[in-house]
Amino acid sequence: MNSRGKFFAKFCLLLLQAVYLTPVAACADKGFKNFEAFISVSIYQALPSLRQVADVQSGGQRYIIIIMNSNNNIDLPSFVKGLAVGASAAVASLIAYQYLSAILKQPRLLSRAVLSKAEDFDTVEEHALFIAADNLRSAIEVRFFGNRKTREILHAGYRNFRESWARDFSFASYGLLALKEFKVVKDTLEAFLDHQTPEGQFPVKLHSIGMVTRWMHSLLNREQSTEILMRPKYLTGHGTPSLDGQCLMVIAAIHYSFQADDHEFLKTHWESLVKALAWAESAVKDDADGLLTQGPYADWADSIARDGHVLYTNVVYWKALHEMADAAKHFDLKDQVPFYTKKAQQVADAIQQRLWRPELGYYAASNTLDQLTSSGNLLAIAWNLAPADQANSIMDALIVTGMANPVPTKVAYPSYPPNLIALENRLGGVANYHTDAAWLWIGGWHVVALARSGRVDEAHGILSRIAEVIVADQQVHEVYAPNGRPLSSFWYKSESPLSWNAGMVVYAYYVLEYFMKSKTDIVSAISRV
Length: 529
Description:
Strand content: 5-15%
Distance between the termini: 37 Å
Number of helices: 18
Shape: globular
Order of helices and strands: HHEEHHEEEHHEHEHHHHEEEHHEHHHHH
Radius of gyration: 28 Å
Largest sheet: 3 strands, antiparallel
Number of strands: 11
């Protein structure tokens, strides 16, 4: 066991002693110093034939204890009370022991770093792509569901998140499809579709263990078991639904169907996607603008209590409506084409009117927050929602604010006020997790946005910076601190690898390669590995 594990084990023992053994001693009121001494004395008290003084040996110590009261009778109420508390302590200790033993029996976490040599690659970009593709594929595992069903699904990570998140998977699917990993995309989509509620809501994630147990595995440096049945979770840790994950699943399903040329999949699940967007639309509070209104902690930046009309969430919602309109045209669903086209246009107009800040040169984070948020702004460019002049203004603002330095790309500028940052993040030493920390999945969309705006040289520069970070670490980390190193504290260690980041890095290569004059076909080569 490493030093952190030893420290935590000792901490747990002290905690058990404080919670269970101290009340036992207090209840007996005879100065017992441990659980064994109390049980021994309880047995003595139950036997009336014993003399007044008992000699108890326990824990290497000797206790001289007066057992009988002045009337030489057994103090039955104290004995029963002490026995009940002692039994409860014994059961609780046994449960705690079994719980910790089950975790410690799991294999130790091993690094997923890709031990590749720089001389085997022509460029640092090729080297980084090889690592990102390997990290992405390493997150594909067969998992068990009810009715003895197994599926090949994509995990978000390995240390902290060995589970499948709707949001993470949907973004990572862009990279999987570039690598022609069609089966895992279809299987993961169907796993979420299997657990869609009758009202149309998708799970936030499919998981097998709770948050505390997941954290304990990470702290004790142990792998999470993949043998436990997966089950759906429909609310976040803050008790909120995931509006962006809901819409991203629709986008991923349509993207898969056309990339894999599996139109039957879309025909089979079309009504499920219709229901999914209808469920999301229940968050529209004003029919005049059609924008989703979310509660705090309800989108990807789930440590930030931003609410109302959030840019990122509504850009994703617009994209889902737009994709549904295009898919309806393809399948000649004439009654649904105008329906989704009209809604998509309504949302696009509302985003422009409510959230564009001409004096700032970018879309505001929400209707109440003027921060520059990279995720919503870059998606608006990459998905052709933002007009060309606004797209260039946004990308210039990202340069001026240094959002891509040293690691592309930071979440927000300026940072959110402390009162909007979740207490657990502040206490855990990662208050900047969704503020001035950088995420490579956003960096990937930064590359895509620049390339699609004709700023190919800048896109290549951003991708080269991403590549240098990946090659230096030999893996794709979850989140990077302002100093350029993976974000971590005593309580939290950055996930490595994170499939969401890895998938978007692969996709960024795929898109940039398309826009470059000299095609290198790197992604195609990696897809055959």
